[in-house]
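Troubleshooting log. The previous run stalled partway through. Resubmitting the same two chains, unchanged.
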Amino acid sequence: MKRLNKHLTILILFSVCLSFVPVARAAQTTAQATAQDDKAFKFTKVDLDLLEQVNLLDKRFEKEGLVYHDEALNSYLQRVGESLLPDVRLENVEWKFRLMRDPVPNAFALPNGSIYINSGLLALLDNEAQLASVLAHEITHVYHRHTYLQNRSVRKKVLAINIIETIATWNPVGGAAGLATNLLGTISPLLLELSIFGYSRDLERDADLEGARRMTITGYDPQEMVNTFKLLQKDIEGEQIKLFYNDHPQLDERIAYINGLINSKSLKGSPDPLTFVSKASYLSTIEKAARHDVQIAINSARFRSAVYVSQKLVSLDSKSPENFYYLGESYRTLGPRAFELTNKELTNGAKKDAAKKHNKYTPEEEEARLMATTAGQENWKINQQQAETSYLQALKLDAANPPAHRGLGMLYEKLGRKTDAMNEYQKYLEVAPDAPDRERIKRRLEIVKGGS
Amino acid sequence: MNKNFRPALPLLFFLLLGQSVAHAQYLNPKLTSKQTVVRNVVILPPKIEIVRESTKGAEGMVEESAALSSKVADLVAQALSDKKIKVLDSPFANQTSETEADRKYTLADIQTHYDALLPKMVNHSKDVKKERFSLGDEVLNLNVDKSADAIVFIRGQGKKLTKGKTVFSILNPFSFDFPFVFITIGLVDAHTGEVLALAKPATLGDVTNPKAEKPLRKMLVKSLKKLPDAP
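Second attempt completed without errors. Output:
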């Protein structure tokens, strides 16, 4: 679970800088720093400046519609989050647990106590204990002041590299010493980058281990943290690329050290453990948010994730027309793609190639390229059939379900069944006269009419 | 190469570029052929991110970025007005934390869609002329004024240097650290979502400085120079 996501460009700039401290030294400093308790943490001007920026960023997320609003869900997140909190009041921290409208399975913490879990991760999880594992990890980042410590560390390293590079540029020394200074100036960015990522990995490991302890104290089973990592390992979109260095430990490594902690029996549980919260109960609590996530996953061209979540929703509640509608939408937009990636597609090289293509082509172009292949055409046929079946099931459960009519209209339009498409669009406009996308559907109806 | 000349090269580069601005612009043939005419536009909330680079790294400037975004939007509106293109009131101009959630989500989703397309447009800007890029008809979900022909998206990023960092960048010219701003202005058909125009103005210098408003205005006007005037 990354603390920083794509929305946090500014915070990334705080962390992704270069310095000159060797990795081993950085790791040692981390261990010392994270062992401090909060009383030992004194705010400096640098920390307060960072806090001010973070508070502004928090407001911006809200203003820009990136935060999901649902009172029941917010209360639920707050309740689970607060149950995991340490019994210490932290200076300049106000705990808030909120859902970010982002389909990428991720979560992050701001040092002011705002913890965001992405809708993509909330929908991927199977039970409350797994949600607790994510929140406990993020709480540790705040509790141990990781962002401030990393910011301080990065600033020192960047100053060092600036000095070294300047000396190397004007290096008046010749011979071996001069060569060594120049070499140092050249390779220092790489060394420092490694040290920063090493530092970051140490903080993540600390957050995992402390998070597992915190779960146990509250009464959640720490094994669910392992299960959360296993869910993340599914890599539904084939996007987990192993790089030369990463800011998080590999998932295998995380599973191993959490299992090690559990097996060491050093975890001391709550005398009054919580009743295990079932998958069905968890999913029904997050159902509305999960549906919302399906829509933003589709908007973000994460079609496989959309199918995965909507299948989960249908298996939870097969009487819900909304769930069948979202399943229909997911299959329709999946188009010529296969729902599951093959083992070959999940190799690191294949993922890198896919990422390059993703950066080069638009989703429409990617779809057109796949449609030119036999496999793509077969997938398209299967997915469109699945979509039609799901929409019809939604209408069987609720004959006036407006989105299902709209979905069928779009499906039939693409299939070239113009009369059927017109009928479905017309029905949609009849049953949803105040729909916000009315203009869009009216325009589509005109186009289909014009072409028929 | 003689080591003594090395620091001089970037200095020469800066001297050549120091006062210059770039303003690449690409138009969809539908605009040039007047198949599509832009008379009225709506400007969506812009997003320009500026960071302050000190000797100890980059620091966020959230408030200053918001102020610059607003200023650039005003200057783009003026530049469009000079072309007799009317800038309509944006239904999203005064969005606050209390704005209706669904409305905020719709805007956020369209902005995200544009942000996902933008790197492809920036890397292959000439393809705007090949009518390659579109946001699709979902732009209609924004429900902007019905008379709007196009929607304007403004994005940008930049950097300003602290005094200390400026000294370091002079002493170490190979670090290629200099204050700059790079802006993109995209005009998208308000009905079909097709990208009609893309401008990529860029300049060196600190644009958060109040004295920079005049050159900034000049740069934005130049960047929209090829855009046909409204009839």
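Takeaways: The interface with chain B takes residues 9-11, 13-14, 17, 49, 53, 56-57, 59-60, 62-66, 69, 101, 154-156, 158-159, 162, 165-166, 169-170, 296, 299-301, 359-362, 364, 436-437, 439-440, 443-444 of chain A (CB under 8 Å). DSSP finds 19 helices and four strands in chain A.
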